[in-house]
Hints:
The structure is a homodimer. Chain A is of the alpha/beta class.
Amino acid sequence: MASLRVLDSLFFPKSVAVVGASANPSGWGGSSFLTDLIKRGYAGKVFPVNPKAQVISGLTCYPDVKSIPEAPDLVIIAIPAPGVPQVLRDCIARGAKNVHIFTSGFSETGEEEGRKLDLEITDIIQNSDLRVVGPNCMGIWVPASKLTYWGDQPRGEGDLSIISQSGGHGEFLTQYAQQLGIYFSKVISFGNASGLQAVDFLEYFETDPATKKIACYFEGMKNGGKFTQLIKSINKTKPVFVWKSGLTPSGSRAVSSHTGSMAGEEKVWKAFYAQSGAVPVNSLEEIADMALAFQYLKPATGRRVLLLGGGGGNSVALADICSREGLDVPRLSENTRLELNKFIRLAGNSVRNPVDAWSAQDTPDIFNKTLEITVNDLNIDVAIIDRLVWNQPDKKEKFDQVNDYLIEFITKYRSTKPIIISLSGINSSLDSVKTRTELLKKLTMSGVAAYPSTLSAARALSKFIAYHEFMAKQ
Amino acid sequence: MASLRVLDSLFFPKSVAVVGASANPSGWGGSSFLTDLIKRGYAGKVFPVNPKAQVISGLTCYPDVKSIPEAPDLVIIAIPAPGVPQVLRDCIARGAKNVHIFTSGFSETGEEEGRKLDLEITDIIQNSDLRVVGPNCMGIWVPASKLTYWGDQPRGEGDLSIISQSGGHGEFLTQYAQQLGIYFSKVISFGNASGLQAVDFLEYFETDPATKKIACYFEGMKNGGKFTQLIKSINKTKPVFVWKSGLTPSGSRAVSSHTGSMAGEEKVWKAFYAQSGAVPVNSLEEIADMALAFQYLKPATGRRVLLLGGGGGNSVALADICSREGLDVPRLSENTRLELNKFIRLAGNSVRNPVDAWSAQDTPDIFNKTLEITVNDLNIDVAIIDRLVWNQPDKKEKFDQVNDYLIEFITKYRSTKPIIISLSGINSSLDSVKTRTELLKKLTMSGVAAYPSTLSAARALSKFIAYHEFMAKQ
């Protein structure tokens, strides 16, 4: 059983050996892991392992794992596949607790040699107490323990943990999410999953106080029944977002080439979502979108949405998008319409829903009044405030004022109604793109669930509501 | 009948009167139209009409349309709705040929007063030879005649013409598209469509030599049968992209508030697409995406796509997306795999399809060889080359070299196979966003069909192929 105690030595190792470390600082593989551990200030002991070197980066180098003077908590293996079985045997002999096999070249190659090696390492692992992450993966990244991963990982610590069969996905997601104020507790890339399984990590997360939300990327799945029960249980207190890839014919073939997994059948996974209440996602952006929703919104079970934006055609597009995502855009109450009509003229605007008050977009006074009146309408459960971003340098100051007011307003209403912001508009000039990027960052960093498009906003909101609807029925 | 000759005076008027012009240069409405005509260098005569002024912007101002010394080709009406019927009567009396009613405040308000005014102007129009665009719309924009529209419209002339019931959509699309090298012949915003109908404009475009592609945004439709036949006929030589909005319950209500249209039923529109072969689109971005495909790709009827990218998880995602969009990502031939294996190692890569040659992404030599071999595989009809954009300042030079080679390669293969580029990666740092924006612009401006995401690329390609499949069956 992978209890908290057991996997602690994986996430917070007191010592790390890097097999395949080399003196070449630009080398891909072992030297990157070693360099990153040192660069980030990992506080435990580090043992480079390479029979061809005496010292690497100022650290004593060992010819093999058996020669290391103490049993390492974690061994990272980054040498070509044929050498991996022997290193595993050495790890067992030395009493190492955890192994991360970075090395690729096993079943995922589809070649006879890779499959044979896979059988060999699986056999070694199964007959030992060794806990193995991988092979064919980036391994473990834990900001709190300065444990390495690759690339430019954000340093902040947060409460989202990730289990991913793709290292690239983990890396791209963490880089993307940090710009939106989303930080991580533990990020696991576990590739072919010949050793530790998704359920092992999930069991740890279930009782891990640092993990409050969980995102998963799976290409295949073993222990399906246990997995479903576990997610169902965890999901009640820690929302779980699950991206299952490879459920299309072409995707299934790609999965086999990537992690050598069996992608499984769509109907099986549909049943999993229906039983567990896990939030289905289909991209990295969606994981970040869901994290924002659960980070900042009060629970909601109603689907009647207020759409406040600008532009007639744009309003129709927003309403269509919400409807397609399962949200309702109802008429506002008669009283709300009468109140709005006092300061929004009928011609060229609409005080129905979507509220298309063009002038309000860049007129703080009108915007503030419109927001206050519409958000409080009793026909409304949740609100999407759409900010149309386009090139209007002369209106920038007022545009910014409206955004500042929005942050203040949403903060004030945090415990009243879920309110999110979407950015619409498609201008692709550098200025516009810069404005969008900076605005999205500013909003999310200020504690607002803000989305780069109306589609992503509506989809995230709908899935957020679906989660709470599911929980209400339990 | 709206023959070429008849609507010529609308698109290329020799004189324009602006009713509601004022001396206030920042005024919304008539003064904007007048200012834009002057600013853009419209070559015909311009007659401001306003009973309260003698001279506006140095031009003699007339108290009403009847007082203008000659019959204007086009009258733009930008005064409050109650005054519009009288101006229409004046236009008839003066023998004006075309009218654009900018004014809002008719049926779309849902109020009794607006509906009455609508009946009144419809009655006037139907009993006259006046050709009326609108009301409640931005009117006509024709770069070749410097005819006005609002905002920062691109000046270049192209072969895409637009009919849109939303002025905002027309404006945003033209601004977005110019960044991608897409230019326009005629852009029509016709709002409530009380006068000229979509079919009138379509008849003009059918024989208009300057129009080679047509994009439509409709909220409602009159003359459905004639419309379908007309599109079916035009679509054979000039692809028609049709965005029909308001087909959801919430969207339908929004349509009624925007242009007072009846949105219609989804099944009716499904039948329209099936009969006419028109390309269904659902956003402005998609219109630009389709324009790029038809601008740069040779016709294709095969759905077997080569996916060349980088990253294991990313490759699975690309394959899933293509599959969902109706494309097939088949295995490459044995010979191709053997050729690729000569210089791409198996571990950590895949020479199946998607071809996940991580090292090739930033290594010009490997990339070029990989491209040449895979594009020529006989199992492949079309290709999506995925460029993963992320923060790698040290690899920028090689990244750019690969992009330059791609442009050269695609240009050389233009008549051999349709090859498009998609940008993947989700880094949201300003640097990454800037790189994406500039790369997309560079590629499209160089004559490459390039797309901001794999989803948009796969969707555009699939619809492009569907168009040619439909035509092959006719």
